[in-house]
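Data deposition worksheet. Section B asks for the primary sequence of the deposited chain exactly as it was used as input, without tags or linkers unless they were present during the calculation. Section C holds the resulting structure in token form. Section D is free text for depositor observations; keep each observation to a single sentence. Incomplete worksheets are returned to the depositor.
Section A, Depositor: J.P.
Section B:
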Amino acid sequence: MRKIALHWQILIALCLAVLTGLVLEPDVTVLGISFLSILIFFGTLFLNALKMLIVPLVISSIITGMMSLNGDTLGRLGSKTILYYASTSLVAILIGLFFVNLLQPGIVDGEPARHVIGLSAETDEVVSKVGGKGASDIAEVLLRMVPPNIVTAAANGQMLGLIFFSLIFGFFVSKLKGSPAQVHKDFWQGLLDIMMMMTELVMKFAPIGVYALVTKVILISGVDAFEPLALFFVTVLLALAAHLLIFLPAILRYLARVSPKKHFKAMLPALLTAFSTSSSSATLPITMDCVENRAGVSNQVSGFTLPLGATINMDGTALYECVAAMFIAQAYGLTLDVTTQFTIVLVALLTSIGVAGIPSASLVAITIILAAIGLPLEAIGLILVVDRVLDMCRTSVNVFSDSCAAVTIARLEGEETKVV
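Section C:
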């Protein structure tokens, strides 16, 4: 009997999760045990397994890639990567701005929707978590790049510092000569091979993890909670879809010269995992496996672009920040002139990169934008109900953009990528 491909297994699990979440009640039990607690257990177990792989995978991948680069290649690769990430994030924000101005989800029957929607009951909790954050937090990016203790940074998931250290370490490993160089090359390549095999093992359990994570979200959130914010929800989804299905495929087709359809198929396991985990970093092991083994990109390119992209390339997040801030401004009846909208675009672009390492990153970024255009922090309560599901969607866009960067830069570097 032919084995079902992994991406189909995950897709089936996703459909079953939606069906289960719609049919069952949150308080249902199985043999006296809460079904929700069972879902939380298996979902957390899957996430922990993915996160367990991140640090050794990132370190070995970057160092292995850096060992084969010279100064000219590194500078060329780095400049192309940063330019790609900045450009696609800017386009994503402008797409979001177009849709939120077109549909105006913050206006109901010609009036600001603030009182119609009402603030979420969780507003105070969120304010306590993200209060005190401001645009100055963006400057902390430079400090997070150079952690005082690399072991502590790795333990706390401070990816930017880990990436910076690995880049520097890998660069100087490439300067070694003779037997020390060969020892390092064999060690780091061996570690990378082991981590990729471990990733493949964890991927076998992805359908179970996806089912648990998505069912939990639907059971907790329910469907009724989406009705008051339906237009905002649709606006974000349409903007994300335009970026995912039109702009990024255009890059693949005309810049990378690869088939968007084949690339989507190659990246399906990573996209579905990103959707269920809502974490670009947690999905990184699977993203790297798909890009290298299914999209045919070398480790030299993927090992540099993907860990960096999972940290700073947030197309979906930047788009969401822009739409959310504009929606809240509309809901509060704020007149949005060209200057104000330019401010939103600029701050969204900076914060999508700058606050990625801060807890509650998207919420922090939105509060920074709200402060920049003169709206109260409590306004974030308008979007809390649908934030979790939209987080799943925008993370998938983030991951797909990272994969497009790897393929595009690989082709620009002269690689002949072949989608499996």
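Section D:
DSSP finds 18 helices and four strands in the chain.
The domain at 70-175+225-412 is CATH 1.10.3860.10 (Proton glutamate symport protein).
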